[in-house]
Write a structure and sequence with these properties.
The chain is an alpha+beta fold. It contains twelve helices and ten strands. It has three domains: 3-193, Jelly Rolls (Sandwich), CATH 2.60.120; 197-245; 250-309, Orthogonal Bundle (Arc Repressor Mutant, subunit A), CATH 1.10.10. Residues 205-303 form the HTH araC/xylS-type domain.
Length: 310
């Protein structure tokens, strides 16, 4: 065996051991299916024991890293797979479809999620001295390969869950290293661009945040463009480059996602949910709901009732 082959073998063995440790640690802190909070505010752990249906949801900015199994996220017809080899970064709020595609009771889907705070990323960029040229905008979603330095940093954070007394001091350091590794990894420039103050990408991120906070209000594209210091045409073009949809489509999807949540979680009837999110026409609401989710609102209400009764 030559030295190159030996080095590759050692690296492979080390990578397998790291993944096995991550599986064990997430499994230990997720006794049942669902999303589990941890003492680290930004960190959540997920266990799912069987493949899921396509689930519409609004993804807030996050890093998702899978230890076992795999999942796909779909945005505007494009599908992004994340598994033990590939992590997912969502750098702006995006309405998407998620689906766990590999999971069994014996080998459940296990993953961790870290919320992304743009202000913390911007501070990290300053401390790291990583300049960014404002050369354009990219989609606010990407999958990239997991490398050894990133996995090491993630494991250091997970090990801290066994020593809660160390979390206040060491967890912020581990989190900074994780995001430092992401910023330096494949496609990390996309996350950097959205955190650099007054870049075109960061202006779109601000527009997204405004829409997220006020999506129930009537939308004025001119006012939105003015609030982020862009022309209307530039906002429309670059907003679509980051989110894969226009500002109006983005607002509409946020409204429909909220209506679905109100029906599924709160038991509202379709007409009440439609009015709650700003629709005046029930028929228009039903058409647009079915176009986005693939089923009319009444089907969702029936599903919610069946789930509750069972």
């Amino acid at each position: 065996m030559n030295s190159s082959t030996s080095t590759e073998s050692i690296a492979h063995t080390s990578g397998c051991a790291a993944q096995a440790e991550l599986v064990e640690r997430i499994a230990r802190f997720t006794p049942g299916d669902g999303v589990h909070l941890t003492p680290v505010r930004q960190l959540m752990l997920i266990r799912i024991s069987s493949p899921t249906e396509c689930t519409p949801t609004v993804y807030e900015p996050r890093l998702a890293l899978v230890a076992q199994g795999s999942k796909v996220a779909t945005l505007a017809g494009e599908t992004y797979r994340y598994d033990p080899l590939n992590y997912l970064v969502v750098s702006v709020t995006l309405p998407m479809i998620g689906q766990v595609i590999e999971a069994t009771p014996e080998k459940p889907y296990l993953s961790l999620r870290l919320d992304i705070d743009p202000d913390e990323i911007a501070e990290l960029l300053i401390d790291a001295g990583q300049p960014h040229a404002d050369n354009g905008v990219d989609l606010g979603l990407y999958a990239a390969r997991v490398n050894a330095p990133l996995m090491d940093a993630v494991l250091r954070l997970m090990r801290l869950l066994d020593t809660p007394q160390d979390l206040p001091v060491l967890a912020p350091m581990a989190l900074r290293e994780i995001f430092y590794r992401v910023l330096g990894g494949d496609l990390g420039h996309r996350l950097r661009a959205l955190a650099v103050n007054d870049s075109r990408s960061s202006r779109i991120a601000k527009a997204v945040a405004i829409l997220r906070q006020s999506y129930l209000q009537p939308l004025s594209i001119d006012d939105l463009a003015q609030s982020v210091h862009m022309s209307t045409s530039s906002l429309h073009h670059q907003f679509k480059a980051v989110t894969a949809m226009s500002p109006l489509q983005f607002q509409k999807q946020l409204r429909l996602h909220e209506a679905r949540r109100l029906m599924m979680a709160n038991g509202l009837e379709a007409i009440a949910a439609a009015h709650r999110v700003g629709y005046e026409s029930p028929s228009q609401f039903s058409r647009e709901y079915k176009r986005l989710f693939g089923a009319p609102p009444r089907s969702e209400i029936g599903l919610a009732k069946a789930t509750f009764e069972n």
